[in-house]
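One thing: mind reviewing this one?
=====
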Amino acid sequence: MLIDSHVNLHAPQFDEDRDAVIARARDAGVRLMVEISDRLTTFEATHALAMAHDDIWCTVGVHPHEAKDAETLTAAELLTLAERPRVVGIGECGLDFHYDLSPRDVQARVFRRHIAAARESGLPLVVHTREADAVMAEILKAEMAEGPFRLLMHCYTSGPELAKIAAEIGAWFSVSGIATFKAAEEVRAIIRDMPADRIIVETDCPYLAPVPHRGRRNEPAYVGLVLDKLAEIRGWSREETDRRTTDAFFALFNRIPRPTD
C-alpha cells in the first residue's frame, strides 16, 4: 500500500493542476496522503483538501520558518483545530537553524507548545529539524521526561547522534527523495540504522523530487521511488518494505482507519 506521509498540496506550485497531481498519485497506486500544515494562515486550505478527498488526511501546525508570526500561539489553539475531522497530527513544527527565518528562541518556544498539544491530544508530532541537533535533542529529552508523546522525525537528514537519541525515546522516521541523491551517503548510512518497525516514506512534495526527477517539482506519484530506494538501502524486498512502512504508518497515525481491501 503506497502511502505518502508528507505532502504540501496546498502549495502554490500546485495551483494550476492540483486535481491532476492527485489523480496521478492515485494512478501510481498511492492509497493515502497526509497533507501537512506549515502555517495557520493556510490551514483552512490544508483542511479543505482533507475534507474534499477520502484518501487525504491532514495535520495542524506551524513550521519553524513561520514561528515568528506565531509567537502568541498556544497549545489550546492547536488542540481546538486538532478536534476537526480528518486532522491526524500536530505539525510540521520544530527547529531550523540553517535559514534562521525565525529567531531561535522563538522557534523553541513555539515548538514546545506543539509538543504540549501532541502530548494532550495523543496525536503524533511531525518534527522538522535542520542544523539544530544539540538543541533538538535537549528539547526532546526534556519534554519526554515531562510526559510521553509520539513523534515523527520527518525527512530525516540530521546527524547520527540525534537519530540515536530520537530512536531511544521512541521516534518514527520518514525517508524522502534525498535518499536517492548521489551525494547523500551519510543520510543512507543513518537510514540503515533506523528502527525497522518505525520507518515510513514521504515525498515532501513539491520539494526534494527523487532521482530521476531531481530538480523538478515533486509529486506524491513519485513516492514509490522512495520506497524502492529504502528497500535497496535496507536490503529488504519491495514487498517487505511496503509491509513494514505501511504497518509503521498506521501505528503512528492511528487516527486514520486502515483500509481492509
Observations:
- The beta strands are 2-7, 30-35, 56-60, 87-96, 125-130, 151-153, 172-175, 199-201.
- The first strand starts at residue 2 and ends at 7.
